Predict the 3D structure of the following.
Amino acid sequence: MTGRTRSYAYLGPSGTFTEAALASLPDSEGAEHLPYATVPAVLDALRRGDVDAAIVALENSVEGSVPTTLDELATGEPLQIVAEVALPVSFALLVRPGTSMADVKTVASHPHAQPQCRRWLADNIPDAEWRAATSNAEAAQHVADGHYDAALAGSFAAARYGLDVLAEDIHDVADAVTRFVALRRPCAPPEPTGSDRTSAVAFIGEDHPGALLEILTEFSVRGINLTLIQSRPTGAGLGSYLFWMDFEGHVSDARVGEALMGLRRVCADVRFVGSYPRADHVRPEIRRGTHDADFTEAAAWLESVRTGHP
Amino acid sequence: MTGRTRSYAYLGPSGTFTEAALASLPDSEGAEHLPYATVPAVLDALRRGDVDAAIVALENSVEGSVPTTLDELATGEPLQIVAEVALPVSFALLVRPGTSMADVKTVASHPHAQPQCRRWLADNIPDAEWRAATSNAEAAQHVADGHYDAALAGSFAAARYGLDVLAEDIHDVADAVTRFVALRRPCAPPEPTGSDRTSAVAFIGEDHPGALLEILTEFSVRGINLTLIQSRPTGAGLGSYLFWMDFEGHVSDARVGEALMGLRRVCADVRFVGSYPRADHVRPEIRRGTHDADFTEAAAWLESVRTGHP
């Protein structure tokens, strides 16, 4: 986390929501923004050291988690989350100049965009067919090239591809956001801010009754709220799976440290994925007995009991 | 725990089960055995420094815990358990020489002895009336003095009071034992043996839903079995109560230390009452992930994660 960030990899092409999220990161200013075609390509560029940092979508509040990103961060060569960005999900319908709503027979977008606009599409252009693109920006490019009639993308992509905004603020679910994470190669976590989130992956080597309850208890007994939990197969065979977990607090907090050590002890393996400031600036309510000072006092008391010197 | 034990206080008079338990303690040999009339008197003698050690009954497996001892150790000036003794519960019916079963109209004993022999009394001397004594030995003394016809006491008390054993091995419940504890003024606990028990008291300042579950979770999440739990009022008003808890393990065990720190953090107060070798020599089954080595490894891992130096 030291030194200037000189280059950022992101899911291209230019004009994606990921690029818009990247532009909101303070350390992206003055850095080179390098587009890559897929999430794995973005992450591999960072792993190889071709770039200093990367940004990818992790979670979409309408569609749930983004499986590729979770799997890559959980089981690929380790990377570390150092920041997050939440962007409202809001699409624009981009068309070539002169196109009217009646002319739209095909609509292209990234597969994640389509279900978020399904109702709007059914209400406004019910006869248009949907086409998949690797990104919304690529969909815009296809429209500019004349392959499709319209693209669902960020309105910021219109100018870049010489398109017009035919409709704006398209989304089925109000207040939906996409969550992006900024990544580094493994490093010391950013300093705690008092409003932090931690991501970790717990691996279950052999499934057994109560495995999830066992993990959740490690958090609840220390008063830590989870903000996301997602089970995934590890690919290592039946009965072997993992839990991706996001939770309140910073790895430097005593309660978080003890919970992570608890996971480490009871799970087949644990991967720390990062502690970083929350995009929503929510400060957790710290439960009675789980402040750092409580842990410090308890440790001093235990020492006095063990040595017989009160 | 260092130095020779020169004097032991116990619940007298001579001939009680407590004296028999005391005789089984290795460090009682060569020490002066000083009888006191009540459990609080025994404990106060130790608190004042009149004796080096004391022994009292803590738990009777037929009648449950001995409330006075629990309350004294939980809320009186602190003392520490350093050893335990388990004696089979087995009474003798002691009479003056020449007395036959038909002559027995009154039977005296400590109130704890009566319910443990209720069925035997009903079957064998159904018309005899029971009388309370402050100890079974005192009951024997009363018989010797001619106040009562018979006493329920240890057979070892017969010779001491010039009585005969009219019946032996009296107990309603097979395998019942009384548990005694040896006490010291607060000190460093005896070394762990691999088969240890720890006693602690958790104070609930203000009752709230889930208070007991919260406490039990501190143990279960670290794989620690409780062997005794007993709630008692603290005397400090409604909603204020305590839990006496005995559990597997030694305060020097990592899992026990972390559980005690957890209690200390979430409870109004915690009193450590002692870690000492188990009388039954049972070695706990240590659950996956809760060995000392697991805690050490997890702490090293957390340190590497916090500093970013894997």
Remarks:
- Chain A touches chain B at residues 186-189, 217-218, 220-221, 251-252, 257-258, 260-262, 264-267, 270, 272, 288-290, 294-295, 297-299, 301-302, 305-310 (CB under 8 Å).
